[in-house]
Amino acid sequence: MIGVIVRAVPDLVEGLEIEEEEVKPYKYIANELDEYAVEHAVNLKEKYGETVEVIGIANEDAYDEIDEALYTAIAKGADKAYKLLIPRTTGYKVAEALSEFLKKYDMILTGTLAVDEFYGVFGATIADLLNVPYVGGVKGIELEGDYAVVKKELGGGAYLVLKVKKPAVFGIVSLEKPPKYVPFSKLRSVMQSAEIEELDLDVEEDVINVRFVEPPKPEVEFIEGSPEEVAEKLVEIIKGLIR
Amino acid sequence: MNPCIQCGVCSGSCPYGESLDFTPRMLVLMSNLGDLDFTDTIWLCSSCYLCTYRCPSGIKITDEILPKIREIALERNVPEELSRTLMNIMRYGNPFGLPQRERIEWTKELEFDVPILEDVKKTDVLFIPGCYGSYHSRCKEVTKTIARLFKMMGVDFAILKGEKCIGDHCRLLGEFGLFENLAAKNMKLFSRYEFNKIITPDAHAFNSLKNEYPRFGFTAKVLHHSQFFAEHIDEFEFNELDYKVTYHDPCFLGRKNGDYHSCRIILNRIPGLKFVEMKRNKEMALCCGAGGGGIWLDSLVKSRVRERLAERRVKEAYKLGVDVIVTACILDIPMFEDAIKVLGLDLKVMDISEIMMEALR
Q1: Closest in A15, A29, A183 to B74, CB measured
Q2: Distance, first Cα to last Cα, chain B
Q3: Does B99 touch chain A (CB under 8 A)?
Q4: Backbone angles phi, psi at B60, to 5 degrees
Q5: Hey, what CATH topology would domain A2-209 get?
Q6: Which residue, of A182, A184, B215, B224, has the greatest Cβ tally within 10 A?
Q7: How far does chain A reach from its first CA to its final CA, in angstroms?
Q8: Strands (E) located in A156-242
Q9: What integer pLDDT is reported at residue B121 of this predicted model?
Q10: Which of A13, A14, A185 minimises the CB distance to B176?
Q11: In chain A, positions 163-222, which contact chain B (CB-CB < 8 Å)?
Q12: pLDDT at residue A190, rounded to an integer
């Protein structure tokens, strides 16, 4: 059975309100690489008949917004969806709270990174707590008995093929084929028929200090005039910089 | 079951006919037999309406047969460029994946304030620029020109900051659920305010608002901007323009909605303008390739056809030795300007409103 973790993250298209002590997103959305993880999982279901469960992670503000991503996962083929409400906390505390629940899966997929977690430690933390292997930067997964054969991206088109004994955790970074499209009417009918089970797990609050520091704005000057005039002024400025 | 006589006029009319794995005639036959087969060339149809217009049995190939097959294709394999676009429309209400709050940013580039209907509550003309007119850098120039013309004419108009994609392409792509959802959202927004008519420069938005939204109970009067300006043509005093121009009939203004005259009335009123017709004009006009989602499927189209429709069309105009190709659908502009750049031609594309403004300077 495959478990996929989908995190609600700030929707960077809609933007953020940045104050000195707080970052307030206008809207939340499922982390893109986590959606890729769903895609890999449902492809594995199609190919090997695996069961796929999706676990949504969202704070209070995103708790309703994560539903759409979970229903979309079901429309794409996932068998069940859960969601977990988290306080203001770190990925470590989330992994800690979830680890017991995640023991039922022989493969756990999530995005290598999230837009609010660039260190790529979430998947690795889960693997560490479960004492199972972790591979990040994964772009392809095949199954061979008790093993998963994964392609780990190395950059520049190169990749590594690894044979990993299950259970294991994989951090997904990209897709090998375009994501499935879920027509609106199908999403609607899933929303009406499927249910999302809420996970009753205690996630510890953790301190996150947000302090927004803006770098000094560079002085910008537009040089106008004919190419000769512009060139002349530019030379003067460069001379000034050299001195 | 439709009364298809398998004459094949549709297949012979299709401008992408030679590139289709299954011609329109075969698709109509298969849908009659209930035994469908299709490949990714199902996405090539740019909803030009030629097949429907010429069908002797009056079969709605563009509006019904194709979208119904595409509805099935949507659940199988959708080209990535299309699935991303549709997801953007679903999430953000526009194909670009840009935030809703940026929809009215174009108004900041004007020298006067544009009334927002959410604030003023009441207006004579509700101006719907559509997604391209609101977000696309070149198309925004047309939107601003229309706003300036309205201002000059003293039109009482306003725009909506909550406007969503009108959805005509979604409908033609077989994404009926999304189309209905967009229509419901837009109609709910419209119902909160008072206005007498809608004016839009997007021939597809015009078509959906005029012919499709009424299915859901929408009753407002809808005009294409060229129709509004043609109606008020006596209010303009044009200066002489020393251009040779031709006019491209947008499929969804012309063939679909029968208006071939509005733009020609306007062009004939501009003194000095030398107006020549392209060989394929009015009901015979060649499509720009944007419709039915074509504007979002450039890579797929290029991989399957010898020459894009827009490229064929600008060549046709260029051979006439014109300076400007005048259009009236906002989607024509990026399509034709791209084609002109690809072919390296010396030709300008102007919306009907832009040539009017040029003659008013």
Answers
A1: A183
A2: 56
A3: yes
A4: -85, 75
A5: Rossmann fold (3.40.50)
A6: B224
A7: 67
A8: 158-165, 168-172, 196-198
A9: 97
A10: A185
A11: 178-181, 183-188
A12: 97
Mean pLDDT over residues B60-82, rounded? 93
Q: Which residues of B touch A17 (CB under 8 A)?
A: none
Instruction: Indicate yes or no: pTM above 0.95.
Output: no
CB contact under 8 A, B181 and A184: yes
DSSP string covering A36-91: HHHHHHHHHHHHH---EEEEEEE-GGGTTTHHHHHHHHHHHT-SEEEEEE--S--H
- Contact (Cβ atoms closer than 8 angstroms) between residue A112 and residue A138: yes
Contact A123, A110 (CB under 8 A): yes
Q: Where are the alpha helices (DSSP H) in B75-202?
A: 80-92, 117-120, 130-135, 137-153, 168-172, 176-191
Question: Is pLDDT above 90 for B2?
Answer: no
What is the complex's ipTM, to 2 decimals?
Answer: 0.86
Residue A16 pLDDT grade (very low, low, confident, very high; cuts 50, 70, 90): confident
- Nearest-neighbour CA in chain B from A204: distance (Å): 32
Q: What is the pLDDT of residues B280-326, one digit of tens each?
A: 999 999 999 999 999 999 999 999 999 999 999 999 999 999 999 99
Kindly report the length of chain B: 361
- Residue B220, classed as helix, strand or coil, is coil
Mean of the per-residue pLDDT values of chain B: 96
Confidence of residue A15 (pLDDT cuts 50, 70, 90): confident
Structural contact between residues A125 and A131, judged by C-beta atoms closer than 8 angstroms: no
- B121 contacts: CB under 8 Å, gap ≥ 6: B193, B194
What is the full DSSP assignment across B84-116?
HHHHHHHHHSSTT---GGGTTGGGGGSSSPPPB
Q: Nearest-CA residue of chain B relative to A76?
A: B75
Round to whole Å and give the CA distance between B50 and B15: 8
Whether B78 and A178 lie within 8 Å, measured CB to CB: yes
| Site from A72, A76, A180, A184 to mutate, B interface, most B CB atoms within 10 angstroms | A184
Closest CA to B143 of B126, B157, B127, B163: B127
- State the pLDDT at residue B97: 96
Q: How far is A85 from chain B (nearest CA, A)?
A: 23
